[in-house]
Amino acid sequence: MNSKDKVLFVDDDSGIRLAFSRSLEREGFSVDVAANATAALTLAEHNAYGVVVLDYRMPDTTGLELQDRLKVVLPDSTYILVSGSCDLDVALSALNEHGISYVIPKPWVHEELVSKLNRALELSWERTAARRLEATMMEMNRDPVGGETATMVMSRGTFARVLLRVLNLREPATGKHCEHVAQYARLIGVELNLSGDALRDVELAARLHDIGKLSVPSAVLAKTTPLSVSEWQYVYAHPQVGADIIGDVTGMDAIREMVLQHHERWDGRGYPNGLKGAAISLGAQILAVADAVDAMLSDRPFVKGLPLADVRQRIEDGIGGQFAPAVAEAFLALRLEASCDASGLRKERPTEIEVQERRLDPAA
Ligand SMILES: [Fe+2]
After folding, report:
1. Which partner from 9, 22, 65, 285 sits 20 to 30 angstroms from 31, CA to CA?
2. Which domain holds residue 104?
3. Do 26 and 88 belong together in one domain?
4. How far is residue 228 from each of residues 80, 85, 210, 356, measured CA to CA in Å?
């Protein structure tokens, strides 16, 4: 647990402070407590807190007033208000005017508090990651001579590297998966006689294909049990989110399209738009095969990845269903074991989402 996962709890009642810290430390949280505004501000100046939980009524201040002051020192933290007299006005003011993310009535239900804290930590992490991304892009756009910004000089490769740096920071396993998919996509592309820009586009799109998973909560990415319907909504959204992240960056139209379409299926049963056959770009058809190959070959908790022969069989079984016939046949034509060794591919454990995707896709 790093320093951003720390929780600051501010309450004037020593018994409640003790109960809060003991019960949450048992859940693995690192908790600091403060009895008043002065102590809270002093701690905030010397520590990074992912979440700050504030009592509403305290002798020297209210939780809302204190949040306004703490926000200056801890802009990326997520704030939770705990209130014994949880009237509607306080709750609405907290949520609408003070940037409080959650209001929890006191006495709280332990499970609800833990659940809110976990989500609050994710929100905090996402704000920090977005700020880092913005800072990195600003730095890369800075003219080394004059110090002026020159937004047009950043290449799409640099843009992609920035995105991948953020993805690797958030979810290293997904970053490795994208790297593997890029290598398979390149092999398939060469087999299909792609070259030059077309081949480079496919490779770059493969590296970025799951960038939209930045929007999937960590708890969902890490889940080892089947996802709920609401959790699946995040997964279904990730191709569109990925396309939105790439946005209108110059020279990346084809990449954006491939990212958007990488979960479409040849038979029209894919997502997000249910495109069918040749309506799916060739690059996205390649990504679909490369993505499935890496997911099937990869080990997952307690289950080994499939042997190459079984993967080849499943790709063959998916021809005309999940996979574009010409692309699947190009993969089957590869002398894959030799190529994998030559390119240094090593199988890593897939993320749970990849495992879930495999469950969703009967052909995969
Ligand atoms: Fe994906």
Report:
1. 65
2. 3-125
3. yes
4. 26, 34, 20, 11
Residues 38 and 102 occupy one common structural domain: yes
94-120 per-residue burial string, b: 16 or more CB within 10 A, e: under 16 = beeebebbbbbebebeeeebbebbbbb
Cα(311) to centroid(ligand 1), Å: 18
In a domain, 148, yes or no: no
The reply to whether 121 and 210 lie within a common domain is no
Residue 134 falls within a domain, yes or no?
no
Place of tokens 């954006």: 256
Distance 354 CA to ligand 1 centre (A): 8
For residues 331 and 141, give the distance between their C-alpha atoms in angstroms, rounded to a whole number.
Answer: 39
What the block records as the tokens of 19 is 């109960």
Distance CA 316, CA 353 (A): 23
Residue 57's DSSP bridge partners are 62
Q: Measured in angstroms, how far is the CA atom of residue 110 from the centroid of ligand 1?
A: 35
Q: What is the whole-number distance in angstroms between the Cα of residue 290 and the centre of ligand 1?
A: 11
| C-alpha of residue 127 to centroid of ligand 1, in Å | 23
pTM: 0.57
Do 84 and 161 belong to one domain? no
pLDDT tens sequence for the chain (364 residues):
444 478 999 999 999 999 999 998 888 889 999 999 999 999 999 998 989 999 988 888 888 889 989 988 898 889 998 887 656 677 777 777 777 888 888 888 888 888 888 888 877 877 777 777 766 666 655 544 444 444 444 577 778 888 888 888 877 878 888 888 998 999 999 999 999 889 999 999 999 999 998 888 877 877 777 888 888 888 899 999 999 988 878 788 999 999 999 999 999 999 999 999 999 999 999 999 999 999 898 876 556 788 888 999 999 999 999 999 999 999 999 876 533 433 334 343 344 444 445 444 434 3
- Tokens in use for 256? 């954006």
Using DSSP's 3-state secondary structure scheme, residue 81 falls into strand
Asked if the structure places residue 139 within a domain, the reply is no
What residues have a C-beta under 5 A from ligand 1, the ion? Answer: 210
Two tokens, residue 209 = 């294909």
